[in-house]
Design brief:
With about 250 residues, the protein is α/β, with parallel strands linked by helices. About 45% of the residues lie in helices and about 10% in strands. It is built from 8 helices and 4 strands. α6 crosses α8. The structure holds zinc ion.
Length: about 250
């Protein structure tokens, strides 16, 4: 069930059977020469909708711009500064809490969001903790990175033993090509596998990783591989959501 195609009366009805909501969160940032700029939110949103279909959970609006300052030296990338993203997450949760939602399950598609979204959860809890017994009804937030599971790691090893990488990964690019097969571009990349390493600001990132990839060879991605990542992530995340939301 999707929030944007529901009526308010349907949302009231949903709240009688569940207080949980799934919130996709991603980023709008370069993903190398053949990856889509929307990769992170496309993956998070697709998997969230799959989980909604499997569990009956309501799926809220996608937060499709994240904390991506390090990608700004590449055309098309957009970032929120950490304080802005904290405010966006906080205001989204507090708005929904007003209606009676108490379990906020963020499905994340971008590693660069983790620290900031975790800080946003602390901000939300701090506000409620500073007033004694004010967390009524008690709300809880969780962040679930779609790629972070044993089953996904196993699939990465099986399909992309070399060049899965850590940015513009073969698996996330494959997943976007499964959703948007018309965008597939398997042209040879140079070097075949991108360099690894750390970075600070946007200029430093572009100097170190000139075509935008980190450690990956996404030319080996295929829509068929993307479907396997999609199916595995949906099953995994659905199981985690169901376990968490009823706790
Ligand atoms: Zn990504």
């Amino acid at each position: 069930m999707d929030l944007h195609t529901s009526t308010w009366e349907e949302v009231e009805g949903y709240l009688e059977r569940s207080k949980g909501i799934i919130l996709p969160i991603g980023s709008t940032e370069q993903h190398g020469p053949n990856g889509l700029i929307g990769t992170d939110w496309i993956c998070a949103e697709a998997i969230s909708r799959g989980v909604g279909g499997e569990t009956g959970a309501l799926v809220g609006p996608t937060i499709n711009v994240g904390m991506a300052q390090h990608h700004l030296a590449f055309a098309g990338s957009v970032t929120l500064r950490p304080t802005t993203l904290i405010a966006v997450v906080r205001d989204t949760v507090v708005s929904l809490a007003r209606h009676g939602f108490t379990r906020f399950f963020f499905v994340n598609g971008h590693g660069g969001n983790i620290a900031t979204v975790t800080a946003a959860f602390s901000e939300i809890y701090a506000e409620r903790s500073m007033e004694r017994l004010s967390n009524q009804p008690p709300i809880k937030c969780a962040l679930r990175n779609w790629w972070d599971s044993e089953a996904i790691r196993k699939l990465q090893k099986e399909l992309f033993p070399v060049g899965e990488g850590s940015h513009a990964t073969a698996s996330e690019v494959a997943l976007t090509w499964y959703k948007y097969p018309e965008t597939m571009n398997r042209s040879e990349l140079t070097p075949k596998v991108a360099p690894n390493g750390g970075f600070a600001d946007a200029e430093d990132y572009r100097r170190t990783f000139p075509d935008g990839r980190i450690g990956s060879d996404p030319s080996q991605a295929t829509p068929e591989a993307g479907k396997r990542f999609y199916d595995t992530a949906v099953d995994d995340v659905a199981r985690d959501y169901e376990r968490w939301v009823t706790r």
